[in-house]
Amino acid sequence: MHASTVNSFLCFSIFPDLSLFSISAISPTIATIRSEIGAMEVVAKDVRSAAVRIVDQQRTDLESACEKVSAIVAGNAVVVFTISGCCMCHVVKQLLFGLGVGPTVVELDREAAGGPILSLLHRLGGGGKAVPAVFVGGKFLGGIETVMACHINGSLVPLLKNAGALWL
């Protein structure tokens, strides 16, 4: 059976009082609907491919951020990732300066790759606060809570000495 005959048959069986004239008037509408469905499928396919491109770009940005962080951390005894104006970042920096450590400070809001690095640090910190993020001896120490806890329990100075950040 031809598609138009099937459409006519279906319409006629559902609405038996329709004339063939009104059925033929419905056919262009059906064609328009089919065309719109086809267009929606194309749009949906474009949206899916755009989403895949975004995810791929985010993955690339995270990999690039990871490489950058690894390079900075590997080349310095103490690294503090901060955001300028963050009071907790200021506290960590002042504590380290007060102990005689000259940390490498990376202010992410002034860094070209700051966003992806911040996202990486957020993941590294277990989903908590991303900054301040302190690395000692090439290893992630933690944020403000961990640094302050290490300072209070007396383990911070030995960590800094082992990393080569303190000579006393």
Short description:
This protein is of the alpha+beta class.
Summarize the structure in words.
- This protein is of the alpha+beta class.
- The chain folds into two domains: 3-48; 75-163, 3-Layer(aba) Sandwich (Glutaredoxin), CATH 3.40.30.10.
- 64% of the residues lie in helices and 10% in strands.
- The chain is built from six helices and four strands; from the N terminus they run ααβαβαββαα.
- The chain has helices spanning 3-14, 20-74, 87-98, 114-124, 144-153, 156-163; strands spanning 78-82, 104-107, 133-136, 139-142.
- It has a four-stranded mixed β-sheet, sandwiched between helices.
- Helix 3 (87-98) links the parallel strand 1 (78-82) and strand 2.
- Helix 1 crosses helix 2 and helix 2 (20-74) crosses helix 4 (114-124).
- It starts with a helix and ends in a 5-residue tail after the last helix.
Helical percent range? 55-70%
What fold name goes in the CATH topology slot of the largest domain?
A: Glutaredoxin
CATH top level of the largest domain?
Alpha Beta
The value of Rg in angstroms is 31 Å
Per DSSP, what share of the residues sits in E-state strands of 2 or more residues? Answer: 5-15%
